[in-house]
Amino acid sequence: MAAASSINSLPYEVRQAIYSFVGQQSDHPCRRRDSASTIAQYAAVSREWQEEFVEPLTFKTIRVTPKRLKAFSQILVSPRRRALVQTIRFHVFLDKYEQHLDSEQETPAERRRSSEILTADLGSFFQVMAHWRKSDTSPLGLDLHLIVESPSDSSTLVGKSGGPLITGRAVMSYLKLDLDTLALPYIDVFSGFRCTGRHLQPTAILAIVSRLRSLEYLDVELNHDSTRHRDVDQRNYLATGLGEHAGTVRVLSLRRPSPMLKPAPAPPRQPWSDFYVYMRAFSQQCESFEFDDCIDAVQFFTPFLVGPVSEKPPRSQEVPFWMRLKRLNVRNSYMMKTPYIRVANRIEALASVHKVLIAIGRATCHMPELSFARVCQYVLTDGQLEWFVLTYELHAGQVVLRARGFKPSKPLLCAWKHAIAAKGLKLEVHHETKDPNAPEL
């Protein structure tokens, strides 16, 4: 009797075509939510099919809740399966609340309760992950995505994208860890850490980061750049603590929280404050650095602004040098939302944008490995949003500089040309703005 035919008897190219087709069907937008269970049904085809196709897709991204930690440990007990995991999404659920509380901030007792839930759940997760070894994980690295929210945080209102907005309570209620009771073991398997959902205070972020000994990628929210005492303290805490607790990080992405519901003004400009001094110092160890409104680009790059009206640096301050930096992404807005108004009118906004573009151009001379930079500046006037974007791309010894939304002025081009020529590179400038009324910056 002839042996029963098997999918494994098919040529390699045919099997790969089948894998690709099934994978595309399972990743269809209508099925994406339960794609893992859709793919899992194919595991019975054969053991080889399960190990070559089903498990790599099933375990690539794992979503874990505190209630599923035991099952998670049992399913991923083998080093072979652990090596397939690239992202673990640990989802912590806070207590539900009534709809009439949507616009109210948590009470002190409720805030303590949220802190207790997060502290306990995070402690349990770290205890489980302490049994993993770096040799078990994928060579591509393992990312931890921490999501903290209440099931009631989704508003009944719908945003422009069609998805639900979050409630005012979710925006206003920040999260802390109980550092007096928290005892997290050291873990060396995570190379990336990202946090979304409720705003996690930098004190809590650094408490987590300090236990991740192989961390290379950090993507978190920084407190608003406002005069609120909590914001000032937490921003300074992160800037001064990164060097001590995140010495292995090479990719840093900082985001501002959701817009303030109770606006607070921005502090006066202090480019030589502890925050900017320490943030500039830490950024010099990065290969990739990205920030939005949470950092004011004018103040961050002040060391590269020279002239009679520019603030002179203290004698103790050296001009930064980003030896490793390969990618830079800067996004700032003007006259949009407090505390990021920054200026009084459009004329002042354009002058500030001009400063930023020139300062970063000069700074690139101190970035010998830079291969990509994108500087986006947004100005809102009379309900109309203007975009000013400058992109730097290096390929085969030639830099392509693209300007969109404005006409590059002679001083701006001179700043970039000088920095690029100092590195022995060729330059090609593309003007991507056809509007004759576009401002010259």
Descriptive terms for the model:
single chain, 441 residues, alpha/beta
Quick synopsis:
The protein is α/β, with parallel strands linked by helices and 441 residues long. The chain is built from 13 helices and 14 strands.
What can you see in these coordinates?
By secondary structure, this protein is of the alpha/beta class. 32% of the residues lie in helices and 20% in strands. It has 13 helices and 14 strands. It has helices at 12-26, 35-40, 47-58, 69-75, 79-82, 108-129, 168-172, 202-209, 229-245, 274-283, 297-300, 346-363, 410-422, and strands at 61-64, 87-93, 143-149, 154-158, 164-166, 192-197, 217-221, 251-255, 288-291, 327-334, 372-381, 384-395, 398-404, 426-431. The strands form two sheets. A twelve-stranded mixed β-sheet has the order 1-2-3-6-7-8-9-10-11-12-13-14, with helices on one face. Strands 4-5 form a two-stranded antiparallel ribbon. Helix 8 runs parallel beside helix 9 (229-245), helix 9 runs parallel beside helix 10 and helix 12 (346-363) packs parallel to helix 13 (410-422). The longest helix has 22 residues, at 108-129. It is globular and about 65 Å long.
Write the SSE topology.
Blueprint: H1 12-26, H2 35-40, H3 47-58, E1 61-64, H4 69-75, H5 79-82, E2 87-93, H6 108-129, E3 143-149, E4 154-158, E5 164-166, H7 168-172, E6 192-197, H8 202-209, E7 217-221, H9 229-245, E8 251-255, H10 274-283, E9 288-291, H11 297-300, E10 327-334, H12 346-363, E11 372-381, E12 384-395, E13 398-404, H13 410-422, E14 426-431
Parallel strand pairs: 1-2, 2-3, 3-6, 6-7, 7-8, 8-9, 9-10, 10-11, 13-14
Antiparallel strand pairs: 4-5, 11-12, 12-13
